[in-house]
Structure formats: structure tokens, C-alpha cells
Amino acid sequence: MSKPHALRGVLANLISESQSPLTPESIIREFRATSGRRLPACDLIKVLVSISEKRPNFAEVTKEISHILQNKDPMYALLVFVERYSECKPVSESSSSTSLSAMGLPHGNKTSDVNSAAGSVPTTLAIASTSTILTTSQNVSGSTRLSLTQSQDFPTSTPVNCKKATESDTTPVVFVRRGPMDRNRGAGKDERNDLSVIKERVLNAVSDQSLSGYRSVTNKTGNSPKSMPNDLVTLTDVPDEYRTHLLWEYYKVDGDKVPRAEIAAMPLLSQESMLLDELLHCLTGIRESLLVPQKPIISAVGLAKYDTDFDIHTHLDRSLTHQVREILPLASYFMGVQKIIAATDGLGQVMNSLNEALQELTHDFYLIIVQAEQELRHNRLTLQKLLYYLQPTMWVMHEVWSSLVIIQLSDSRDAEVLTYLHERIKRLEGNKDAQQLIIGLVRKAAKPYMRMLQMWIQKGVIVDRHREFLVVDNEVIHRDELPEHYSDDYWERRYTLRDEQIPSFLAKYSDKILRTGKYLNVIRQCGKRVMPTQEMNLEFDPTSERHVSVINDAYYFAARMLLDVLLTENDLMGHLQSVKRYLLLNQGDFTMQFMDACEDELTKNVDHVLPMTLENLLGLTLRISSARNDPYKDDLHCELLPYDLVTQMSKIMKKGENWQAQPRLDLSGLECFAFTYEVKWPCSLVLNHISISKYQMLFRQLFYCKHVERQLCKIWKENSIARQFEPQAASLYRAAFTLRQRMMNAIQNLEYYMMIEIIEPNWHIFIEKMKTVENVDNVLRLHQDFLDSCLKNCMLTESSHLNRSIFKLCKICLKYCEFIQVSSSYSARVPGG
């Protein structure tokens, strides 16, 4: 008796003893199922317990099998289970025949008995009706799922199909039981059997003579099963680790073939019956003698790399050969899909999700083969009928195969796969069935991507272990631990787009997606809880634009919430008004009182100026001027910059990175002085260091002009000295005083131009636009536009050469003032001039 018969025979005896409604085939099918479709280990143990609890060594065997299931393949555990009970009670040939009949194998005409037995399977097995074989398989929840067909006599819903037995394999089964010490020793270490040995056992256990034509005949060679070499199968071109659950790909079996009747001597109907039997197995990747796959061409490129050609037996009738050639491309498509599934396993969440959808498609394909084999066993199937039934499947499978091959050849991954499948949908407008299938694939493949997108636009969080998402987080440390001026680049550089990971259907909304997550991230860092107004279930549906509405709703929610945080809770406009009041000299009385208080200190060399003195004078001035009512006056501070205005302008305009590390020049305190304004997060996003530096440039030029104006006003009182001079000498002083008046007019007109004609109109435009702003990015853009416009028109840009002329003019005015003051003091000491 063969090993498959022994396996099913032992199970049949146990089922008979326990009066269980299960069948050997249903148990084997569940133990050899893939990991995603298999019952949990605890349920598998329950199945074995239900049929073996009457045996004397029941407890010992159950404990051993439980341990094996934790570390080994379930099929290996089933083999050990059968081995233990086969030693307790040998299985006879008659019992084996009974089990074959009970499973519905072609041992007798007992299909009706099998169907009645299948109808009595308990609720732990989910029976799939044959009416749903050609439709999409449904998901069965929990541990109550075991895919079976309505007729339990077809163990062909997995890659290795059961076909009609032509001859019995009389090779005896030899099991060697391990002793208790061996068992303990094996449990104490992590065993790992040779994969080829496990593969041979699985093939022997589940094929039920499907590979009987490939086994060596012991009667010819005289070798016992123990002495047979361990080279049952040889690999073709796919790594062995990909074959553990699904991919068989026409294994080539070594050894002599079981003798068959000469095909040319058989009648046409017999040829067709044998050919149909082998064709159904060929469609699922099992090598046969009449349909032999050609050896893969290693140098093949393009679609041919994933194509399989077949050699058809030359003695077959020509009419049969012609019909078979029309069906065989389906086997090539199916096997190409399986190769790609195996090759892309574990290459990211998108590819894994796509492979899961393809596995469901594979399951439906197996159900079609099951239905066809059922028709064949009832002698109702012909090649012409099979071709008719499979024609729609061939068209759809060709589309899936060609799409996957193109993806694989172009080495597309993640968003590129979604982009290609989405574009493929548009090209299939004339093929509704294929289009619907691709729509289903892209919908399922996009699930992990859309899950990451949902987390980003709802919570501002990126969960992207495989770097598949379109937004990348460049943060490496916590914001509180960042350098002093990190906020300058926070908004632009913290989160950026990864262009190669943007699917085509999200390309138009990528900027909105980026900003939505940014807003939520800032809100959360402000200590506020992000609470969406409604739960959003984001899924990609190529037939609708629902995901667009979800993205828009999330964007508007985040934009309104952050604007409320900035404008209402943190009073951004109040801070901007304070900056304008102090750094743009809009608070006139404060400016004059501060210059009066600090004039003596600022005329010193910058190395002798005491910053603490300036801070004390600033605080005193703020409290005696009208600025005392400003709630943000304490955010204003004094700063002595280590560079002059020209250097600062050059560095700011060129965006130099090390512009603060310049060596100190020989400057006066007045040339280095500037106000600075410090704000907290999140207002620092708008009033960041670059923006404050631009305000300082405007302040330093205005402040310097104010100082020159004050010096020119001081020498006005020297006009009275001219009355004491003789007419000739007085005329020289009058010319000097006329020059002073012209200097005064030039400086005052320059101040008027900058403050009244440039700053005020631009500020008014900025305030009006801020009333209709919708998001923080617009706030940043409007604020930067205001500052850049002021700098440009105040001649404080690198492209403008007038600023240097203005500085020279101011210095000339100061030198003139010094000259007049020195001359006046000298004239006062010398009577008569």
C-alpha cells in the first residue's frame, strides 16, 4: 500500500472509530493549506483530538503533536500523528479502500455518499458551494474557515491535484518511531529538516498517486524505500524557500516512469480522457508525460522570461493537439503569476497586499479546476467544453500576467505599482471583465498606502517602515532639544515630499496632503489634542473620487484649527503689530526717548558697550513711554550684532549659513545696535529668525537715519553764532548752514519715503490679505512678501547699489556735523573769529 493510501487509511480508521463527520481529505486539505488560509494550531489539535481520543496513547501523542505544531510545518505534524497511530493498529488494504471510497476518489461510484458526508461537516468547516466557484471567494472570519467544495471528492483546490488512479503503487510504508529520549532531544533544540526531505514527505502524503507516473518502480530496480536516494525532485529556476506553500512549477521527478498504454493505440475518446486528466494537472503546475514544459531559457528577456512553452506528445490526435494548444497559454499565465508572487514576497506593504489579492485570485482559479475535474469524473467534460469554459479566464489571466510581468521587468515598487495599475485601468475601457479585475487588485494593493495616508491627514503621524509613503519626516531629535534657530527651517525642511512615492491618482493633491499633516503636527506640538470632526474611512476606489473629498475635508479641518491656534489663542496679529511698532519705528515717542537715553552709550566702541546697560535703559524707556500698555513689550530686547548693515544684508540675501560667525569689525555701538523680538512656538513659525533679521535690516537703516537727523538738528543752534561774526565771515557760515539744511531735507525725505511710501502701504496690503487667509502657508507667504517688498523698495537688496550710496551719504553728514561742532567750539574760544 502506498504512503498516500496509508495516510488516508489511518485517518479513515480513526474517523470510523470516533464516528466523526470529517473525512480524511478534509483533514489533509486543512493541514496542507497556506499559512494565510490555515486554521490556528489550537483548532488543528482539536480536529486530531476528535478522531483519536479513543486510542490508548491519546494523551502522549497529542502532547507531542502540540509541540511539533509550534515549531514545524503542520503537514509534518500530521505525518507524525499518522505514524504514531499506524504503529498501534496496522492499517489493512480493505480499510484503505474504504477510506478512498469515503473521500470520493475514483475507487468506486460513490459520489452521492461523499456529498451526504460533506453535508454533515460541523461548523468548524466552511463549505463553499459550487455555484460560487466562478465568483470571488468570500472571506470567512475567525477560525471557522476551511475551504472545501460542495463535493468532497475533489482534493484539487490546492496546487497538487488528485487525479484518477491508473495503477496502484504497492510500495509499502515504513515508519520508524522515535524513542522517548530521541523525542526529548529533538525538542531541546531547534530542528530544521532538509527541505527536500520535507517536500518529498508532503508530496507523498497529499498527492494520492498524482505523481505515481514519476515514481521509480521498485520491482524493476529492486531497491527498498530506505535505500532510495533523496533526489525525488529537482528545482527549475525558483529559489526553494518560495516553494514551501504554493509554488510547484512543474517539478521534474527522477527515476523510471510507470509503464502506460501506448497513446497512439488508444481510441480517440480514451486519448481525450487521458489528455483532459493531465491537462487539468498541467494548469496547476504539475508535470505530466503528454504535456511536458520546455526548459526555461536563462537568457530570455521581456515577457518571454515569465512565459512557459510546452511540448505535446507527438502521437496525440491532431484535433486534440490543436485544442490543447489553445488552452496551454493559461497554464503559462498562471505559472508566471505564481513566479512573480514568489519573487516579490516581502518587498514592501504594497507588494504584499497585491500578492494577497493575487492569492485570492489563485484560489478562485483552483476552484474552477475543481469544477472542471468534477465534470470530468462524471464523463461530462470534453476539450471543446473546457476551452469554452476557460476562455473568459484566459483573457483575464493574460491581462493579469502581462501587467505583473511589466511591473516586474521595470522593477516597479510601492507607488509605482499603484500608478501603473491605475493607468492600466484606463486602457481597459473595452474589456470590462479585465478592467473590473484590475480595479479589484489596485483597490486591495492600495490599502496599506491609504492606511498610511489616513494616519497622516488625520493625526499628522507617519508610520512608514519600508519608506513607501509620499511624505518623509526629516526630524532626528525632539524639537525642544534642537539648536537655537532650528525654527527657521522647521516648516520647510521637517516634512518634505518624496516624489518617486507619489501615485498618479494623488499627484494633484500631494501638496495639500503635505500641508495637512504639517498643520496637525504643529497643533499637536502646541499641546492641543487633534480631534477630527468626523471619522474618515479613507479607501481608494478608482471608480469614484471619494478619497479626494476625504483629503479635502481633512485639509480644511487642519487649516482652520491651526489658524485658530495662531490667530486666536496665540494672537499672531498682536505680535506682528508689536514688531512693527518697535522694529519699524512706528512708536515715535518711544524711539526718541530711547535714543536720548542710550545716545552716550551707543557712541562708544562696540567692545565697550555694556548690553546689560542697554537692556536696563530699554526697560525704563518702555515703561515711561506710551508703549507701557503693550502686552508684548517684554518680548523686545537689545542686541549688538558683530557685523555692519552691509554685511548683514549680503548674508541674508545670499542665505549664508555661517553669517553669524564673522569676526567683529571696528564699529561703534550705533552701527552694531539692533532690536530683536523673541516669540514662542508656534508664532516662531512666522516670526522666525530670518524674518526677524529682515526686520532688523529695515530697523538699522531707519535708526541710522534717525541718528543722522538728530545730529543735524543739534548743530542748528549753531546758527546764532553767525551773528557775532563780521559780514565776510558770516557769509561762509551761512553757506555751511545752507548745506546742513539740504542734508536735513535729504535725510528726512529718505525717512519719509521708507516709512510712509513703502512700509505703510505694504503693511496695509498685508493686513487686508490676512483677513481672508485660509491656511498657515498663506500667512507665511504673505508675511515674506511684505518683508521682501519693503527690503527691495528700501534699497536693501544685493541687486541694489543705492544702499551703499545712502550709507556714504549718512557718514558724510555725520562728518559734517562733527566738523561744525569742532569749528563752533573753536570759534567760541577765539574772540572775533
TrEMBL record:
Gene Ontology biological process terms in this record: microtubule nucleation
InterPro entries: GCP, GCP_C, GCP_C_sf, GCP_N
Keyword presence, Cytoplasm: yes
Residue span(s) of domain Gamma tubulin complex component C-terminal: 572-822
Domain Gamma tubulin complex component protein N-terminal: 276-569
Protein's cellular compartments: Cytoplasm, Cytoskeleton, Microtubule organizing center, Centrosome
Domain of life the protein comes from: Eukaryota
GO molecular function: gamma-tubulin binding
Family: Belongs to the TUBGCP family.
Function field: Component of the gamma-tubulin ring complex (gTuRC) which mediates microtubule nucleation. The gTuRC regulates the minus-end nucleation of alpha-beta tubulin heterodimers that grow into microtubule protafilaments, a critical step in centrosome duplication and spindle formation. Plays a role in neuronal migration.
PANTHER family: GAMMA TUBULIN COMPLEX PROTEIN (PTHR19302), GAMMA-TUBULIN COMPLEX COMPONENT 2 (PTHR19302:SF13)
Assembly description: Component of the gamma-tubulin ring complex (gTuRC) consisting of TUBGCP2, TUBGCP3, TUBGCP4, TUBGCP5 and TUBGCP6 and gamma-tubulin TUBG1 or TUBG2. TUBGCP2, TUBGCP3, TUBGCP4, TUBGCP5 and TUBGCP6 assemble in a 5:5:2:1:1 stoichiometry; each is associated with a gamma-tubulin, thereby arranging 14 gamma-tubulins in a helical manner. Gamma-tubulin at the first position is blocked by TUBGCP3 at the last position, allowing 13 protafilaments to grow into a microtubule.
Protein name: Gamma-tubulin complex component
Species whose genome carries this gene: Drosophila melanogaster
